[in-house]
Design goal:
NAD, Dihydrolipoamide dehydrogenase, FAD/NAD(P)-binding domain, single chain, 29% helix, seven-stranded mixed β-sheet, 467 residues, five-stranded parallel β-sheet, flavin adenine dinucleotide binding, Enolase-like, domain 1, alpha/beta
Length: 467
Amino acid sequence: MTQGTYDVVVIGGGPVGENAADRAARGGLSVALVEHERFGGECSYWACIPSKALLRPGNLLAAIRRMPGVQHDGRIDAAAVFARRDEFTHGGDDSGQFDWVRGAGIEPVRGHARVTGEREVTVEGRDGGVLHARHAVIVCTGSVPKTPSLPGLDGLPGRLVWTSRDATTSSEVPGRLAVLGGGAVGTEMAQAWARLGSEVHLILTGPRPLPGYPDFVGDAVAEGLGAAGVRLHPDTGAESVSEVDDSVSVGLPDGALEVDRLLVATGRRPATDTLGLETVGLEPGDPVRVDDTGLASDVDGQWLYAAGDVTGRAPLTHQGKYAARVAGDVVAARARGETVDPEPWTRYASTADHHAVPQVVFTDPEVAAVGQREAEGPHQRDVELDIAVGGSALHADGYPGRMRAVVDTREETLLGVTFVGQDVAELLHSATVAVVGQVPLGRLWHAVPAFPTISEVWLRMLEEYGL
């Protein structure tokens, strides 16, 4: 039985929890890190890492096809792709992550954690027992898939229904796959599995995928999905599902679609159902609302913190790690008796969560965006243009790409940038620096892009604006 008192108890051993624990430990505190599945979390074994391993071969093959003179047979060896993916996820073995936790001076605890009182965490499982925190409990339990209210879904056998975890870990290519949901997970997995050999149907409730982005992004991604063999069903939505002869019949407005597997990718929600948060006045299933230091807004006593997807703020691994570093530093500083002033853009405030969140969708074409995606109000302006520069022309024949910059016309700074095109993810950090740093466009003019690179589009954007 695990018993003991630590300065900090962190619940959730994924990248977010690891960062929170590490920063608190670096600040001189004793830390226990509790994980009920695998240390390394969703991103390492079921999300970011395996999904990108599945996508990369297809994206590379598409790039080769845009480059005359390169010999290729146009095929992907699915078994080799799965083997490489499994190397990155270590076949689900988290011993390396476990050893890292212990090597960082953090006590790893295996089991399911529940908050059972102020600064008290009860662990059920292999290392079960009760942990007490002198200073803070930090919740970093991430998110879980949303289940849509779809007639017949609850009655389908589990073998026929994929969650995002099944989509990233399966080593069998289904003959026919239907994907519900046109967000990042749905579009990425639709394209990945189509290129691995499945007949894929992407069922959309709206006219195009990625509805949270500008229309030109969704249109470009729809074209890329079609080129990969994905069959799009826009403005549709599934009306019902049922099992028919060990397959799934998906009821659509214009008839039934029969497939071998159904991937439900209709969003995620904070993983707070079984954390015992009702004992401290919070609602199970709801996000843990926090301020910019990570401190829970609705719990008295300045002891409960949270970071990552569980807060509902910016559900992305990199943003969760960023918020976790802030929370760990804040907890350590307050434990030392220091006054924490969470002014924007200091180490004690996760300011970027509000208006400088970078995100990439790793389809072909890629989508990369940070900050605002369209102008809002009279003192903002969209500057939109094709990515048609010397670098892109050399990068791929007929390079398809477009960008939009949102400019504050009073301050002449960038509020956001969106790119769509082959390999545009590598343009994103420069855009993020410009947005976070509020770099004046007149100064950005002197950041000369190297020739011939795709980054030349920065110069063309400034010229389009009028500099």
